[in-house]
Write a structure and sequence with these properties.
Chain A has 14 helices and 17 strands. By secondary structure, chain A is of the alpha/beta class. In chain B, about 50% of the residues lie in helices and about 15% in strands. Classes of the chains: A alpha/beta, B alpha+beta. The interface of A and B includes residues 21, 345, 346, 362 and 401 of A.
Chain lengths: ~400, ~140
């Protein structure tokens, strides 16, 4: 039974109601960024027009009010992922900054020459390159969990990669390029048996399923606001207090200090130690508004409907001759990566675009993963709860047109 | 035909299309007509790598005129490459450097040359001009 009124929900997203090349917009690039409900757009606008003031420093009315709202937003994020404490929530500019912060700070404290870091074949470049840079700095070694042909991580191989030198495991909960949902609970359990902390990249998971960081027992969890129907320029680090207290700050400046003299600076407490400079408080409050919005819809309802969309689209696309879905994991979120036999993904993408349908083409910032499948790129349709089966039918028709043109 | 005449002719040809699909179908036809590049030039050395599609470009001097040869792994990119070859191939280096390329804008394909469209075409135009600079310098000597 569908608990969401999709037509009503679509009215909450003003961008969806428009024509592209004289055709109604079909937005299937939700893996790259999601659209924003009016309530989020209004909230940001209201802050700038009525409430703006720099937070945490002023003694005046506006500053105090907005500081309170910023800290409330932190608490909303904390509850959203069920983090134990609000000071374990660091607000950043996005997942990329979150991972860079941890890779740098964790690396400074715990990683030395000859140590090992484990990531996976499914990672986005943002969860590869920061670790690579750390390995270069510290002369550490990067190890990569392989996958099978369905795009699932090989956990037996993962176990074999773990050694006494492993310092951290960093994997995504959901692959951006394939939609694979990884069994991160198991990955964390295995790491913890060996006293190794785990970072989970939740950029593609928090918008699709309920995440409980205490249940997962992950040591770090990161995600972005803009993929969660929230504003751009805001992201999150959840980190266990024990690590965050021991790790040195990544960026330094105002706000994150306790006392500064020219001889010595002492740092502020958590979470401020990791929030140098003026934070993006407008986006943080916008993110909290987005979280409230999707919690009102209910993530369980969202997951159920998105599963319906995924199953419908998978069946429909699979029926097209010469279409091959890349990533056929048993457990997936609603993203489908595919290639068309003898048709370049760029050509297909160009034509599909002209039908008013937004899909993504290319390597999806996961070049090593494309290499694993021996392909240069795919087309990816990634759905959200405001998409419909009728829109999937349009994609199906568009693919048939592509085949006709280039076949 | 001068470089300007070539461009105007293409603009004229495209003026009959009022639909994107017709334009793309025409580019697909043009891609098929593009003179095959000698396989020995379809190597890493002549590859212009875009994020989305690849372009191979080779040029040679023939009687004070530059002859361009191109190919791409994507058909629409190849069709646009065919247009660029048609306009610039057989022209003198100085003409290639002194004339503006306005036809892509006029036929609505300028977006394919924007820096964010990483299909290799913008780099291809740059490379074509670099060949012209190099051959012009050579001729000057």
């Amino acid at each position: 039974m569908l608990n969401l009124d999709i037509q009503k929900i679509r009215k909450d997203f003003p961008i969806l109601n428009q024509q592209i090349y004289n055709k109604p917009l079909v937005y299937f690039d939700n893996g790259a960024t999601t659209q924003k409900p009016q309530i989020v757009i209004d909230e940001e606008s209201k802050i700038y027009s009525q409430e703006n003031s720099n937070i945490h420093r002023g003694v005046h009315y506006l500053s105090e009010q907005l500081t309170q709202r910023y800290e409330d937003a932190r608490k909303t994020v904390q509850k959203f992922i069920n983090a134990p404490h609000d000071h374990e929530i660091i607000l950043t500019s996005g997942t990329t900054e979150s991972i860079n912060t941890i890779a740098y700070s964790f690396g400074e404290k715990y990683v030395n020459e000859g140590d090992e870091i484990i990531i996976s074949t499914l990672e986005h470049h943002a969860n590869i390159v920061p670790w690579q840079m750390l390995c270069e700095r510290k002369k550490a070694v990067l190890k990569v969990i392989p996958i099978n042909d369905k795009g699932e991580l090989l956990l037996d191989e993962y176990q074999k990669l773990i050694s006494p030198k492993t310092k951290i495991v960093a994997v995504n909960q959901v692959s951006n390029a394939l939609g694979t949902v990884n069994d991160v609970k198991k990955i964390i359990e295995i790491a913890h048996k060996n006293d190794i902390p785990v970072l989970i990249d939740g950029a593609q998971s928090v918008q699709h399923n309920v995440v409980d960081v205490q249940d997962l027992d992950c040591d770090f969890f990161v995600f972005s606001g803009h993929k969660l129907y929230g504003p751009n320029g805001i992201g999150v680090i959840y980190g266990k207090e024990k690590f965050l207290n021991e790790m040195p700050p990544y960026m330094t400046g105002g706000e994150m200090i306790k006392k500064v003299t020219f001889e010595k600076t002492t740092f502020n407490e958590l979470p401020f130690k990791f929030e140098a400079g003026t934070p993006n408080y407008v986006a943080a409050i916008g993110l909290a508004t987005a979280i409230d919005y999707i919690q009102e819809l209910g993530l369980e309802n969202i997951a159920a409907y998105e599963k319906e969309l995924l199953d419908y689209a998978t069946e429909k696309l699979e029926s097209i001759e010469g279409l091959r879905i890349i990533g056929t994991a048993a457990n997936k979120v609603c993203a489908i990566s595919f290639i068309l036999e003898n048709i370049h993904h760029f050509d297909a993408g160009m034509v599909i675009d002209k039908m008013g349908i937004a899909v993504r083409t290319g390597h999806h910032c996961a070049e090593p993963l494309m290499d694993r499948f021996n392909i240069e790129g795919t087309l990816r349709a990634s759905f959200a709860f405001y998409n419909t089966k009728e829109e999937i039918d349009k994609l199906y028709d568009a693919i048939l047109t592509v085949k006709q043109m280039f076949g | 035909m001068t470089l300007k005449e070539q461009q105007d002719e293409i603009i004229e040809e495209f003026s009959v299309f009022d639909d994107w699909m017709d334009k793309y179908n025409y580019l697909i036809d043009l891609s098929k007509d593009l003179k095959e590049i000698d396989p020995k030039y379809k190597t890493q050395q002549y590859l212009i790598e875009g994020c989305q599609s690849k372009v191979w470009l080779f040029a040679e001097m023939d009687n004070e005129e530059i002859k361009y040869y191109a190919d791409s792994d994507a058909i629409i990119t190849k069709g646009i490459a065919a247009l660029l070859v048609r306009v610039l191939s057989g022209q003198k280096p100085a003409d290639i450097l002194n004339n503006e390329l306005y036809f892509l804008d006029k036929i609505g394909l300028q977006q394919n040359l924007s820096p964010t469209r990483s299909n290799g075409l913008l780099a291809m135009v740059k490379q074509m001009k670099l060949y012209a600079i190099a051959y012009k310098a050579k001729m000057g000597n």
